[in-house]
Amino acid sequence: DTGVSQNPRHKITKRGQNVTFRCDPISEHNRLYWYRQTLGQGPEFLTYFQNEAQLEKSRLLSDRFSAERPKGSFSTLEIQRTEQGDSAMYLCASSSRLAGGERETQYFGPGTRLLVL
Amino acid sequence: KQEVTQIPAALSVPEGENLVLNCSFTDSAIYNLQWFRQDPGKGLTSLLLIQSSQREQTSGRLNASLDKSSGRSTLYIAASQPGDSATYLCAVYGGATNKLIFGTGTLLAVQP
Questions:
Q1: What are the angstrom distances between the C-alpha of B52 and each of A102, B28, B110?
Q2: Residue of chain A whose alpha carbon sits nearest to that of B35
Q3: How far is A105 from chain B (nearest CA, A)?
Q4: What would the pLDDT profile of A69-109 be if each residue is shown by its tens digit?
């Protein structure tokens, strides 16, 4: 399967603990995105990488959140000192930039559902 | 600030009906618009992408249109089936940003 994969698929943690999620994009895609989706809402943008460079961060990404893409391949999203409000589905997507500058379809992974107790 | 709205929030139809889902956006300076499908507890599946220079795209029983000047898109589903039951999300990609901005979705139930 050459789609976007995310691990773990589900995570239950206690408030105050740290959690880390992993995303493996489609191999030839140089762009990687993280989104967060709460119940009944559409996904909201968190951050975006082009290769290993983190080029954009949402103000939703507080200082408890950090994302990395060290070698321009997989990415990790860490949440420190989790709060109940962090409970959500965390979605990863990847895409590649087309020659004409057009934005290609973003392909989404299955998501990681986080529940903070 | 770009805002995306989807109407209706929920829709229930009998099998075989044709239906239209609506999406509106406030800033017409977009690169493209995408329609996604999301099954409960799952990720997003891209259905159709319309570039800003295009007016519609078709895939099987799905047809999406785009009217940039009025800030509207529609997703037409022909001959609906129970397997079409899901949440349908539209998202726009525009301006100087590199992010998709999503609507809140339309929850579709097709009754057998």
A1: 9, 9, 31
A2: A105
A3: 7
A4: 998 899 999 999 999 999 999 999 998 876 555 567 889 99
